[in-house]
Amino acid sequence: xxxxxxxxxxxxxxxxxxHLHTEKSLRFAEDFHFEDTDIVIATxxxxxxxxxxxxxxxxxxxxxxxPAQTIPxxxxxPWLEQFYSKDVLKDRQGIRILTTHLPYDILxxxxxxxxxxxxxxxxxxxxxxxxxxxxxxxxxxxxDPGTFDEFLEKFLLGTVHFGSWFEHxxxxxxxxxxxxxxxxxxxxxxxxxxxxxxHVCKFLDVxxxxxxxxxxxKYCSFSAMSKNAMVNYTLIPTxxxxxQKGKFMRKxxxxxxxxxxxxxxxxxxxxxxxxxxxxxxxxxxIHLN
Length: 289
Ligand code: PPS
Fold this sequence. Notes:
- By secondary structure, the chain is an alpha/beta fold.
- 43% of the residues lie in helices and 10% in strands.
- Strand 1 and strand 2 form a beta hairpin.
């Protein structure tokens, strides 16, 4: 897909990097046949996707690090909408771990035909925009973000790749009752990872012995994942991700936005956040602002 490095694919009014998405692959996701046993990790980019892929993989292997350390994350938990997923999933047996950045509006009708489990991870959007900005600088399949101020404006307008953060959150969270749904935030995972892992175990109906939980925690820590080539994207060649310009596993912190936002940017952000989020129950937003 090198020839599609600078292609932008537009689908239902949202732009996606053409390097990974085609009209066909997006339609494949939109019409996907979900099984009741599927586990779907749904996120806006940079919200903790890779972290949850690792947690679910480690829970599914009873804490054994072997699958997580030998199979790339995109192969064990493929993004439904990316072009390779059809092949990756062709002969897959048993419980499937699927990942998606698609908004509710695109995926809901297919997903609702099943009782698949949906794990939705959200992160404080100020940290999302900072992480996304750095990712744009290293990922050659995403447009040059310009200055942080320029990128922030596009993020707030929702014209960035993968669409509006606000629409993503509102779409999924305001319809969560329609699904077998677990809502979890990046901030909760940072605060108490053991408790988050236990919530995921319960939701997946996979009881783990305390030693197995210890092992999950050990291998999904930021430092362990930073060293795991199956998730840190160092396997991806420089023409696609420029590892000189940054790391995929960048900082793994909450509140890093404070290093980037000016007072003016912060007050603009807060105004838009409050306006956009009026319809959502406050308890869903506790960690996101
Ligand atoms: S992507 O491109 O959408 O799949 O990115 P995603 O995985 O959602 O988000 C990447 C950010 O998550 C951080 N990360 C972690 N933080 C804490 N602990 C662990 N184990 C962990 N794994 C990934 C990663 O560092 C990115 O955040 P930033 O703020 O850029 O460091």
